[in-house]
Write a structure and sequence with these properties.
The protein has 3 helices and 6 strands. It has helices at about 25-40, 45-50, 125-135, and strands at about 5-10, 55-65, 75-85, 90-95, 105-115, 120. Strands 1, 2, 3, 4, 5 and 6 form a 6-stranded antiparallel beta sheet that branches. The radius of gyration is 16 Å and the shape is elongated. This is (3S)-malyl-CoA thioesterase. It holds the Pfam family 4HBT_2.
């Protein structure tokens, strides 16, 4: 997968809980924003999804919290495509404190390509499958 970040942002005070750490709902939100940047690199752009009647649905998501993030911390997420199947992909996000380089959390997601009208899974177009094949993580990264 490309080394360019799929998300960059900061932790705002209003994103922190009563003990001063970024609340888990914001980890999920930042991972979600990274999803859409990753999808766009694969050709699953907003215009493609709108015009084709397709969508993406997360069917499994596993998050591991490693280090707390505090108000003012700069956050960067890098995403790695792990597996491509006919109708689904599996990928991992690594969220880091951009100042220290420490991993704050990881998130592994399985997403399914959907026909929004039929509400059923649908095969990826060839162009998406080809783009995904070019972005698969090297085995050592997985």
């Amino acid at each position: 997968m490309e080394r360019e970040a799929t998300y960059r942002g900061t932790v705002y005070p209003w994103q922190c809980d009563h003990v001063g750490h970024m609340n888990i709902m914001w980890y999920v939100g930042k991972f979600d924003e990274a999803n859409w940047n990753l999808f766009a690199r694969l050709g699953l752009t907003p215009s493609y999804l709108r015009s084709s009647g397709r969508g993406m649905a997360a069917v499994q998501q596993n998050i591991a919290y490693k280090r707390e993030l505090l108000a003012g911390d700069i956050v960067e997420i890098h995403s790695h495509l792990l597996e491509v199947r006919d109708k689904s992909i599996r990928f991992r996000h690594d969220m880091r404190n951009a100042e220290t380089g420490e991993i704050a959390a990881t998130c592994e997601i399985t997403g399914v390509h959907m026909d929004r009208q039929l509400r059923k899974s649908a095969p990826f177009d060839d162009a998406v499958r080809e783009a995904a094949a070019r972005h698969l993580a090297e085995p050592a990264e997985a």
